[in-house]
Amino acid sequence: MSTPTLVPGHADPDQKGFTLLEMMIVVLIIGIATTLASVSAFGNNTEKALRQDAQRLAQLFSAAQVEARASGHGIVWEHDQQGYRFRRLPRRMMLPARLAARAQQPQDVALAGDSVLRPREWSSRTPVEVRVEPQEVLSFGPDWITTPVNLELRTDGISIRLLRLGNGRFVVQQ
User: Fold this and answer.
1) Total domain count for the chain?
2) Which residue range is the domain that position 106 belongs to?
3) H helix or E strand, kind and range, residue 71
4) Which residue among 47, 82, 93, 115 is buried most deeply as judged by most CB within 10 Å?
5) Has residue 22 been placed in a domain?
6) What is the pTM of this model?
7) What is the 3-state secondary structure (H, E, C) of 11-70?
8) Measured distance CA(150)–CA(107) in Å, rounded
9) Residue 58 counted as domain residue
């Protein structure tokens, strides 16, 4: 009596189920998917929060520039370790926006409450340090030509840059 042998590509009609190789491939795929899901869900939350703040700031800075052009009022971005806010400069001042920003002005009601430019706290649980170059005050004026700006957000040794290009567009970089 001879033992039956299987030819590759032809399954035994009596065989039911999966081969060991097929099961190992499925387990490998499930393992990879689980690893990717856990890394994205439980990754560095501080870095995610800082990146989210940078992306939100890029959008808010664009909105502040549009608001400054539409209203004719300069807008200044102020920050501390807990959060940030936008302040509108009075129209009657004839100073450039950077100089006018250094003067103490009352907070504008239009930039609080339900406004897009309302005061906000940082998403990160730890204090955030901000460095703005080449100027110490970030201002948005009604003029159409803007200067490049390099803004760095830093917390817990993590640093993310937000750049304003010469065309006025804001870009987030690691």
Assistant:
1) 1
2) 45-173
3) helix 45-71
4) 47
5) no
6) 0.66
7) CCCCCCCCCHHHHHHHHHHHHHHHHHHHHHHCCCHHHHHHHHHHHHHHHHHHHHHHHHHH
8) 26
9) yes
